[in-house]
User: What shape does this take?
Amino acid sequence: MAVLELNGVSKHFGAIQALSGVSLALQAGEVVGLMGDNGAGKSTLVKVIAGNYPQSVGCIALEGRPVSFRKPADARAAGIEIVYQDLALCDNLTAAENVYLGRELRKGIGPLRILDYAAMRKRAGELFAELKSETRPRDLVRRMSGGQRQAVAIARTRLADPRIVLMDEPTAAISVRQVAEVLALIRRLREHGIAVVLISHRMPDVFAVADRIVVLRRGSKVADKPVAESTPEEVTGLITGAIERA
Assistant: This one.
């Protein structure tokens, strides 16, 4: 059974049709590369899944059970986490403090409860080790590379033990070495049985890590196929409209 199913999902903003009848199934431990030109509907689709926008038409199911998200907190409670392109990290805080941002651990009784920094650092360190990242819990985010920042953002999603992680352009504007680190992090999520939806304009990254490619054009799905059965040239044609469907 698919961990996530979208059936005929459409989304419009007034007269603007952002998504038109998109259906998609996502399996546990699967990485799906979501591709398309600017305005194709990729971010809108991810935000519908993440609870930022309610769909106008269609239904969403998790492990066969229909769900309706009114806000992002509903999606998070159902096991869906999202890593935005800007990562939403606080540069003045440590890696551990960012992992637990908004979910801080406390110790003590009643009004005397204080932040349990030791417990947060310990668990953050375990998550970084699990992801095989060199990031350390006490490291300040402002001193980190792009790859290390992604490790912090991904560790934050792991804290909630998610079933699905949505990633928006995680390899944009970082070095080749850091791209390799981020792709390795995505593979670690897959190894733990977590489904990943990867939005990216970088064709080599998608072909390096994805099991399946979904292409959107003008809000409609025009391709959904295993990476092994496609090519960068075909995907480029699908994105531009030179190829209608695949």
Remarks:
- The first strand starts at residue 4 and ends at 13.
